[in-house]
Amino acid sequence: MEDALLYEQLEDDLTLFAVCDGHGGPEVAHLVAKLLPITLKTDPDFKSKNYSKAFISAFKKLDDFICSQRG
Fold it and tell me: In the chain, how many domains are there?
């Protein structure tokens, strides 16, 4: 199985559930499962409870990171 399961309590009344698909290998799925909660919680839109914008921003940041030399 190349999937990574994610369950994270982000706030008292907000929980993140996700299945990250590896698409050919588990490494990226596990990396996203590890970094997504941290990336969300530090996003300014998340802090102002604009969750839809925060998710878009977090996915873009993670995609940029994965496509970079560091990722």
Answer: 1
Q: What residue has token string 């990722």?
A: 71
pTM: 0.85
Q: Which residue type is seen at 34? A: K
| Cα 56–chain centre separation | 10
H or E element, residue 41: helix 26-41
Distance CA 10, CA 40 (A): 9
Place of tokens 């914008």: 53
Task: Quick: pLDDT tens for 13-45.
Answer: 999 999 998 776 788 899 999 999 999 999 999
